[in-house]
Amino acid sequence: MSRPDPTQPPSLAAERVSLTYGGTTIVERLDLTVPERAFTALLGPNGSGKSTVLRALAGLLAPKHGTVLLDGRSIAERPAKETARRIGILSQGPAAPEGLTVLDLVRQGRYPHRSLFGSWSQADEDACSEALRLSDLNLLRDRPLDSLSGGQRQRAWIAMALAQETDILLLDEPTTFLDLAHQIELMELIASLVDERGTTVVAVLHDLNQAARYADHMVFLKAGKIVTAGEPGQVITAQVVEQVFGLAASIVPDPVTGTPMCIPWAKGRRAGRRRGDAEGNRA
């Protein structure tokens, strides 16, 4: 994929950022540069600050200290609508008014591109149609959101984010509620947005092996601090998995892609029984 001009400031970065909720510090003095036109995965245990960092990068949470920069300028200095034309975000557990259809929701993604009294344009229509196509929702476009399964609703919210047509897309656990087939479809879609459209994507993910397959860059967080960051082949090690997740694991090549694959070591009685069964079968 193409790379940005190294002489230009990074499009999205956090400098010495500290973030708090209710007086409790969640993230402290974080430095993060998001690679442009690449897929970055944020990983870590629950409570490590992943979603908090994502909200700060979107300009939805003001740092107590430090600065979030968009094109070298503090995001806090930009009008919200201007930021929304550059950065789209899909948060965890979004809610919509009762009775809203899939198409109604997707059309809301065009808000940053429209003036107060501006009429609906062909560009708006084309963006929504493409978002529905990419999310495989054309047949459900007129269905109320509350009549859909959890996975279908999640795809509708993703379609809304796609209709926003931003350079940067932030996704908080986007595979939530999706079955395995739709998880893979979504990861393939994210990869195609990066490779074919040059979109910068940052996603909070829980599946380490999916992240390793699809992400260009990985950031491991623990207790609000970055443990390590880099390409999957550089940062997914048994030592990192132990340090971040407190879990012993073996790292082997993925038989399909050759990227690192994490195999956790089970503990306890059932694990011991399985090992015994395996040894008995070999005997």
What does this structure look like?
With 283 residues, the protein is of the alpha/beta class. The chain has a single domain, classed as Rossmann fold, CATH 3.40.50. Helix content is 35%, strand content 24%. It is built from 10 helices and 12 strands. Strand 1 and strand 2 form a beta hairpin. It is globular and about 55 Å long. 36% of the residues are buried.
Query: What's the end-to-end separation, in Å?
Result: 50 Å
CATH class placement: Alpha Beta
Tell me what portion of residues adopts beta-strand conformation.
Answer: 15-25%
- Per DSSP E runs of 2 or more residues, the count of β-strands stands at 12
The CATH topology corresponds to Rossmann fold
Overall geometry comes to: globular
Low-confidence stretches: 278-283
Average pLDDT taken over every residue: 90
Count of structural domains: 1
Provide the structure class: alpha/beta
Report on the biggest sheet: 6 strands, mixed
CATH superfamily: P-loop containing nucleotide triphosphate hydrolases
* H-E string: EEEHEEHEHHHEHEHEEHHEEH
In the CATH hierarchy, what is the architecture at level 2?
A: 3-Layer(aba) Sandwich
How much helicity do the residues have?
25-40%
- Gyration radius over CA: 20 Å
